[in-house]
């Protein structure tokens, strides 16, 4: 498994260093808000610089990088890696029981992604695993998206579902025996889960070079996550907005 992780990461690094200069670049600034599902007030706002590159073989999209194995007008298959910002820092929580738990760290996931486009919309899928050995978990995702253009505006609503492996859930939402003794929470071992979601991306073409965007996603948490003593919400998600300059 470690050999596979290192090989995948090595392929992405090699692709990045050999990417052609003839692709499209976008630079910008944005803010990412992620409602935290953990008990206590832990919602965070992240400033995210935008550095996007789209080439024939390689792409980089702020928090995601990938190398195309197959790319045409209808199909895109790539190996990719992305930053998963989910984490828990006990000292930041305002809940006295949560302060007694261990930290959960954000990580980098790597795997494969495939998108198929038709007139009726597109299907987006991905499968990735933790390559930093934090959770040693797996995540799979599948969604249907339908782009709509109206003048300078474009909208892409979508719906999908995410599967998280038991290792992924247990790392972020499980409560170990030692944590149970310190915090007073019952010990909890999380199994795998399916979390449905809806999303919307809106873009406004300010001029030929400048764009503004907004992305929102609402994720309904499964019972396997909600049953954790660490969780007091039935949902999570994200709000992401910013501006970009393309050249």
UniProtKB/TrEMBL annotation:
Residues 1-22 form the signal peptide. It is found in: Cell outer membrane. Keywords: Cell outer membrane, Membrane, Signal. InterPro entries: MipA. One of its GO terms (biological process) is peptidoglycan biosynthetic process. GO terms for cellular component: cell outer membrane. The keyword Membrane applies. Its main location: membrane. It holds the Pfam family MipA. The keyword DNA damage does not apply. Belongs to the MipA/OmpV family. PANTHER family: MLTA-INTERACTING PROTEIN-RELATED (PTHR38776:SF1). This is MltA-interacting protein MipA.
């Amino acid at each position: 498994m470690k050999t596979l992780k290192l090989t995948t990461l090595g392929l992405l690094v090699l692709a990045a260093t050999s990417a052609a200069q003839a692709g499209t670049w976008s630079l910008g600034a944005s803010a990412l808000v992620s409602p935290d599902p953990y008990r206590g007030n832990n919602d965070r706002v992240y400033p995210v610089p935008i550095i996007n590159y789209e080439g024939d073989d390689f792409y980089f999209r702020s928090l995601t990088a990938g190398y195309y194995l197959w790319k045409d007008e209808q199909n895109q298959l790539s190996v990719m890696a992305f930053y998963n910002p989910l984490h828990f820092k006990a000292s930041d929580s305002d809940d006295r029981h949560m302060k007694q738990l261990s930290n959960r760290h954000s990580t980098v996931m790597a795997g494969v992604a495939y998108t198929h486009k038709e007139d009726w919309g597109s299907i987006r899928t991905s499968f990735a695993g933790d390559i930093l050995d934090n959770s040693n978990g797996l995540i799979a995702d599948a969604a249907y998206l339908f782009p709509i253009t109206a003048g300078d505006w474009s909208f892409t609503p979508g719906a999908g579902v995410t599967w998280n492996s038991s290792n992924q859930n247990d790392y972020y939402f499980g409560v170990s025996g030692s944590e149970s003794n310190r915090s007073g929470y019952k010990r909890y071992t999380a199994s795998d889960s399916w979390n449905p979601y809806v999303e919307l991306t809106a873009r406004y073409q300010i001029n030929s070079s400048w764009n503004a965007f907004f992305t929102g996603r609402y994720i309904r948490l499964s019972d396997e996550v909600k049953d954790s003593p660490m969780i007091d919400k039935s949902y999570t998600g994200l709000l992401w907005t910013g501006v970009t300059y393309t050249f």
